[in-house]
Write a structure and sequence with these properties.
This protein is mainly alpha-helical and about 110 residues long. It has four helices and no strands. The protein starts with a helix and ends with a helix.
């Protein structure tokens, strides 16, 4: 159970990092120049590029938010994993509280 939960948290951390790199590349001077040329020449590819850029921006926003909300769970879940069965009960309340906060405040999760 623990490994699956941590892998889920690690997935969003990795996704956010990867999307940051893609976003940075799309904002580079070369890519901006290319987009400008596509727009000036009224290329049929310009609309596709705009959609791609917006998809990356939206995915990055989603990954950042989910990562921000799930990050506190990682240490709590690690604490559960290291606990003996009879020690789990008092440690479940923080997990459930954090999950409720994620559910209540995250627009993407």
């Amino acid at each position: 159970w623990y490994q699956r939960r941590v892998r889920g948290i690690d997935f969003w951390e990795s996704r956010a990092r990867n999307l940051e790199c893609i976003f940075d590349q799309l904002r580079s001077q070369k890519v901006r120049k290319m987009a400008e040329i596509l727009e000036r020449t009224e290329s049929s590819y310009f609309n596709s590029f705009k959609i791609l850029f917006q998809d990356v921006v939206n995915a990055l926003k989603e990954a950042r938010e989910i990562n921000m909300y799930l990050k506190p769970l990682k240490s709590t879940i690690e604490s559960l994993e290291e606990s003996e069965f009879d020690q789990l009960e008092p440690r479940l309340a923080p997990v459930l509280h954090t999950l409720c906060l994620v559910w209540a405040h995250s627009t993407h999760y």
